[in-house]
């Protein structure tokens, strides 16, 4: 079973109202502190490509990285997230307080990261409240950011970590950043 968690960079946002995650159940590099359980997420990227053969790279501009769209059940953190959206407040400020999305795999009572996504200077750009005929209401919210780092954890069959692959991108610089946030303000 997969588990998706969102951890704001500024833990005071949670106001002791999120789900405390027992990090002892994680095999490696799991969350510490309060998290919001996520039902689903969506994010994309694309490169603008041209058919002009005179351009060897065939690109026609900068890459487009979409906002992260997350869906969660309405809960005690909802009103605080509304406040942050309407006030255009950062969910974590700078490289030292990234907001993090954990996508984990649960098996045999243990959880292992499949991919960890860190967002520098994340801000909620939109929230949509949704009701469903046979389920509890959900909220879809979008996260905008200045830099992103993706860390994929390779796994052995016994769920032990084999290694990690990391890449990152700065939207502000339109350049790769590897696995470390830039100090650009």
Please give a structural write-up.
With 185 residues, the chain is mainly beta. The chain has a single domain (2-44, 65-176), classed as Pnp Oxidase, Chain A. It has one helix and 14 strands; from the N terminus they run βββββββαβββββββ. The longest helix is centred in the middle third of the chain and has 9 residues, at 78-86. The model has no long low-confidence stretch (mean pLDDT 88).
SSE layout and pairing:
Blueprint: E1 2-7, E2 19-20, E3 34-38, E4 40-42, E5 45-46, E6 64-65, E7 68-73, H1 78-86, E8 99-107, E9 110-120, E10 123-132, E11 135-144, E12 147-155, E13 161-170, E14 175-176
Antiparallel strand pairs: 1-3, 1-8, 2-3, 4-7, 5-6, 7-11, 8-9, 9-12, 10-11, 12-13, 13-14
